[in-house]
Automatic annotation (TrEMBL):
It comes from the Bacteria. The lineage of its organism: Bacteria, Pseudomonadati, Pseudomonadota, Gammaproteobacteria, Vibrionales. Coiled coil: none annotated. It holds the Pfam family DOPA_dioxygen. InterPro entries: DOPA-like_sf, DOPA_dioxygen. It comes from Vibrio japonicus. This is DOPA 4,5-dioxygenase family protein.
Length: 112
């Protein structure tokens, strides 16, 4: 695993969960919103985009990176988090500019 590197202007973090871990994931989502005061995306209990697991996303910037990434890594428990850059190239964002906190999860790259 390569730890995320802060080298882009904008990022997404996708927190993956399933039916058994949805309550825990929901609590992390609420903590990001209240403790870190960061906007969080919808709590998707369905597959969305290239993601083959349920997920929610956090949009953040280079200036928020050093606060969010260690916090997420500590708070995520056994959940996997995809951290990727947001550029004009969705494919590269989810491959070359993708980092994982936890075990890597397969993505459906044909949807990009």
């Amino acid at each position: 695993m390569t730890y995320p590197i802060n080298q882009h202007e904008k990022y997404h973090a996708h927190v993956y969960f399933n039916q058994d871990s949805s309550d825990f994931a929901s609590s992390i989502r609420n903590r990001i919103s209240t403790e870190l005061n960061m906007p969080v995306g919808n709590f998707h209990q369905k597959l969305v985009g290239p993601h083959l697991m349920w997920s929610f996303a956090v949009e953040f910037s280079r200036s928020e990176f050093d606060q969010l990434i260690p916090w997420l890594d500590s708070a995520r428990g056994d959940l996997t988090v995809l951290v990727h850059a947001v550029t004009d190239d969705d494919y590269k964002d989810h491959t070359d500019y993708a980092y994982w906190l936890g075990s890597e999860v397969e993505l459906n790259l044909t949807r990009l």
